[in-house]
Automatic annotation (TrEMBL):
The keyword Lipid metabolism applies. CDD domains: ttLC_FACS_AEE21_like. Residues 455-529 form the AMP-binding enzyme C-terminal domain. One of its GO terms (biological process) is fatty acid metabolic process. Residues 28-405 form the AMP-dependent synthetase/ligase domain. GO terms for molecular function: ligase activity. This is 3-methylmercaptopropionyl-CoA ligase.
C-alpha cells in the first residue's frame, strides 16, 4: 500500500495560520491590552506601555524615513536607560539590526565594531559621548549618523552628533506601520564577544531565537504577570539576556539603573517593589557584603545569576535577605542564559549547604534549547553521567546564534557535528544536570593533574576574610603550572599569604593548593566578570 500523507494535502501555510516568530509582537500586544500599565521607570520618569510603544514607533518611522531598513545596522552606546530599552523594538521595527556596544571598551575597539558591523546610525548616551566621538573619527570612511540621547538624569557629558534622540522622535509618526520580518531567521541583533584573544567576533541573533529565549526566561524563572525588573545587568550584554523582550511579553516594569551600586539597588528594590533582577556572581557578592542598614526591603525578590557558581557562603548570605537565587548558564552565542538550574521541590528539605551545592550547578536546558550534552571534544561522544568525568559542554537549538558576522571559518569551528561547542569544561551528573568545572583555557595542569580553578576558588571564598578570589595558572619549571590565587579582602580585614595557604591545605587536596597568593583589587568586565586573561598575564610576569 502506498504511503500517503493525508496531512500534507491542502493544509498549506497562509497568513491566517502562520507568522514568523518575533519579539516585536510582544510590545504591540502589551500596549494594546495594558496601555496604561507602568512600563518604564527612570529616576523621576514614569511611562506607560502605550507611551513606550508610541515612542518606539516614532523612532522606527524616523529611521525608516532616513533610509534605514533591512540589512542595515543601528548601533547604541548607552547605559541602562529608557532609550536603550526602546531601541530593542524601534530598530528591528525598521527591519534593521540592533548592535548594542559594550560601554567599557576603548575607542579603537568601538571603532572596529562600528566598521565591522557597518553601522549606519549610532545612538549615544551623554556619558559616552567622548568615547563615541573618538571611535567615529577612528572609523574613517564610514558615514555614520550620530544621534545624541539627552538624559536629564546624567550631569555633564558632551554632544557627539548634530541630531538628538528627541529630534528623531519629532520626525517620527506614533502610528508608523512597522512590519514583521519576512523570515523569522532574519537577523534582529548583533552582539560582539569580548575579543580577549584578538578582534571581537560579531554574534548574530535571529527573531525566532530572541522570541523563544525571551519566553523561556519567563517560564524557567516562573515570572508572574507584571513582574518588576531591575536593570542590574547591562542591556548591551547579550541584549540583556533577552530581558527587554521578556519584560514586554510579561507586561512588566522596566526599572532602569545607570550604575550598579548597593545603595541605589536596595533603594529601588524597596521603593519600586522590584521582584526580579539579574547579574554576575560579583553583583551578588557586592550585595551580600553591603552594610546591613541598606537591606531594608520587606518583600521576596528573585535573582538570576550566571556563569561561575556563586560561593556557597554568598548564596547563603543573599538568600538570608529573602533574595532567592536561580543559577543559569549560557554564552553570547546562545542569547545569554540557555541553561537553568531548575529547582525541585524535594530539594527544599535539604540543609543550607546542600541547597547551595544544588544551586551552584548550571543545570538543564531551558525550554528554548533543544540539546545539551557534555562530551569528548574530539569524538563528540557523551561522557558518563557520573558527576566526575570532564568533557566540553555542547548545545543546539533555536537559541543558538546564526553564526559570526563575516567570519565563516570561526562559525565553522564553533559548529561541530550539529552542535555548538562552548569551550567550557564540565561534568554531567546522574540526574542530567551539568556543572561547569572551568573554561578549557582556565584548567590548570600541574604535574599532569587537572585542577579546576573554580574548585579552588570555592575553597578560598569559604575563608571569612575573603571578598573576591580568582585562580589562574602560573608557569612552574618543576610542575609545568601551579595554581596562583588573586584575592581581594573584605574592608578592614588583614590576611597574609601563609595563613590563606594553610587554610587551603585544610580544605582541599595538597596538589590543588595555591602556591602563590597575590592580594589586591581584581580587574573586571563591565558585567562584573573577573578578567582572568589579565590575571594570567600578571601570573606569568611574576617569573
Amino acid at each position: 500500500m502506498a504511503n500517503y500523507d493525508i496531512y500534507g494535502q491542502g493544509l498549506d501555510i497562509c497568513p491566517a495560520n502562520y507568522e514568523p516568530l518575533s519579539p516585536l509582537r510582544f510590545i504591540e500586544r502589551t500596549a494594546q491590552i495594558h496601555p496604561d500599565a507602568l512600563a518604564v521607570v527612570h529616576e523621576g520618569l514614569r511611562r506607560s506601555w502605550a507611551e513606550t510603544y508610541a515612542r518606539c514607533r516614532r523612532i522606527a518611522g524616523a529611521l525608516s524615513a532616513r533610509g534605514i531598513g533591512k540589512g542595515d545596522t543601528v548601533a547604541v552606546l548607552a547605559a541602562n536607560i529608557p532609550e536603550m530599552f526602546e531601541s530593542h523594538f524601534s530598530v528591528p521595527m525598521t527591519g534593521a539590526v540592533l548592535n548594542t556596544i559594550n560601554t567599557r571598551l576603548d575607542a579603537e575597539t568601538v571603532a572596529f565594531i562600528l566598521s565591522h558591523g557597518e553601522a549606519r546610525v549610532l545612538l549615544v548616551d551623554p556619558e559616552f559621548a567622548e568615547l563615541a566621538e573618538r571611535a567615529v573619527k577612528i572609523a574613517r570612511g564610514r558615514d555614520i549618523l550620530v544621534v545624541d540621547i539627552l538624559d536629564p538624569s546624567f550631569e555633564g557629558g558632551a554632544r557627539a552628533g548634530g541630531l538628538t534622540y528627541d529630534d528623531l522622535l519629532a520626525e517620527g509618526d506614533p502610528d508608523f506601520a512597522w512590519s514583521m520580518p519576512d523570515d523569522e531567521w532574519d537577523a534582529i541583533s548583533l552582539n560582539y564577544t569580548s575579543g580577549t584573544t584578538g578582534d571581537p567576533k560579531g554574534v548574530v541573533y535571529h527573531h525566532r531565537g530572541a522570541a523563544l529565549n525571551a519566553l523561556a526566561n519567563m517560564t524557567s524563572w516562573g515570572m508572574p504577570h507584571h513582574a518588576r525588573y531591575l536593570w542590574t545587568l547591562p542591556m548591551f550584554h547579550c541584549n540583556g539576556w533577552c530581558f527587554p523582550w521578556t519584560i514586554a511579553a510579561n507586561a512588566g516594569v522596566c526599572v532602569c539603573l545607570r550604575a550598579v551600586r548597593p545603595e541605589p539597588v536596595f533603594r529601588l528594590i524597596r521603593d519600586e517593589r522590584v521582584t526580579h533582577f539579574c547579574g554576575a556572581p560579583i553583583v551578588m557578592n557586592m550585595l551580600a557584603n553591603a552594610p546591613d542598614a541598606l537591606k531594608d526591603f520587606d518583600h521576596p525578590v528573585k535573582a538570576m545569576v550566571a556563569g561561575a557558581p556563586p560561593p556557597a557562603s554568598v548564596i547563603a548570605a543573599v538568600e538570608a535577605m529573602s533574595i532567592g537565587i536561580t543559577h543559569v548558564y549560557g554564552l553570547t552565542e546562545t542569547y545569554g542564559p540557555s541553561v537553568v538550574c531548575a529547582w525541585k521541590t524535594e530539594w527544599d528539605a535539604l540543609s543550607g549547604e546542600e541547597r547551595a551545592r544544588m544551586k551552584a550547578r548550571q543545570g538543564v536546558r531551558n525550554p528554548a534549547l533543544d540539546g545539551l550534552m557534555v562530551a569528548d571534544p574530539e569524538t563528540l561522544a557523551p561522557v558518563p553521567a557520573d558527576g566526575r568525568t570532564m568533557g566540553e559542554v555542547f548545545m543546539r537549538g533555536n537559541n543558538v546564534m546564526k553564526g559570526y558576522l563575516k567570519n565563516p571559518s570561526a562559525t565553522e569551528k564553533a559548529f561541530r557535528g550539529g552542535w555548538f561547542a562552548s569551550g567550557d569544561l564540565g561534568v554531567m551528573h546522574p540526574d542530567g544536570y551539568i556543572e561547569l568545572k572551568d573554561r578549557s583555557k582556565d584548567i590548570i595542569i600541574s604535574g599532569g593533574e587537572n585542577i579546576s580553578s573554580i574548585e579552588v576558588e570555592d575553597v578560598l571564598y569559604k575563608h571569612p576574610d575573603v571578598m573576591e578570589a580568582a585562580v589562574v595558572a602560573r608557569p612552574d619549571e618543576t610542575w609545568g603550572e601551579t595554581p596562583c590565587a588573586f584575592v581581594a579582602l573584605k574592608p578592614g580585614r588583614v590576611l597574609v599569604e601563609a595563613e590563606l595557604i594553610a587554610f587551603c591545605r585544610l580544605n582541599m587536596a595538597r596538589y590543588k593548593v595555591p602556591k602563590t597568593v597575590v592580594f589586591g583589587e581584581l580587574p573586571k568586565t563591565s558585567t562584573g566578570k573577573i578578567q582572568k586573561f589579565l590575571l594570567r598575564d600578571r601570573a606569568r610576569a611574576l617569573g
